Predict the structure.
Amino acid sequence: MTRGLAALLAGLAGIIAGAGAVGIGLAALLTSIYGSFEGSAAIGGFTIGMPVGAIAGLALGLWLVLRKGGPPPGKALAWSAGALFLVVLVGAFL
């Protein structure tokens, strides 16, 4: 039960962090390539980058907790809760 909760929290933190990071990165990359005409490159980065980042973040968060030889459930839960808290805290100030 504890490992499942830790995996859920790690997946949520991965979704939030991955979607934001890949979405912003791809929007900046596409804007530098295509220019900023009406923000079309940024919207492309948003519509492509955020779902891809969310899926990758979820997969990475779940893999880090559920892999064989991973951290003990209590330690994984503490790290996942801390990571989720930091992601929300950083997001609140941006």
The chain has a mean pLDDT of 84. Residues 8-83 form one domain. The CA atoms of residues 39 and 78 lie 40 Å apart.
